[in-house]
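user: Here is a favour to ask of a fellow structure person. I have my own habits and do not want them to colour yours. Could you put it straight underneath, so I can go through it closely?

assistant:
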Amino acid sequence: MPESGGSVAGGIAGSVAVWDTTDTGPPLRTFHWGVGPVYAVAFDQNGPCAAAAGHAGALVWDVDD
């Protein structure tokens, strides 16, 4: 996703959003996993995965699924 102009963002409300930075529209996907406030997000530089870390844990997922 990063090569195609993607971005991932987390929020204090516990949601994580995947954005297409070449478009001004809404996020491509928004996730609510119940990890509490999201403190960090990152893309895997070797593939289509992203990670998010929150107050109650961390998650890794395939952003293309």
Observations:
- The chain has a mean pLDDT of 85.
- The two ends are 12 Å apart (CA to CA).
- The chain has no helices and six strands.
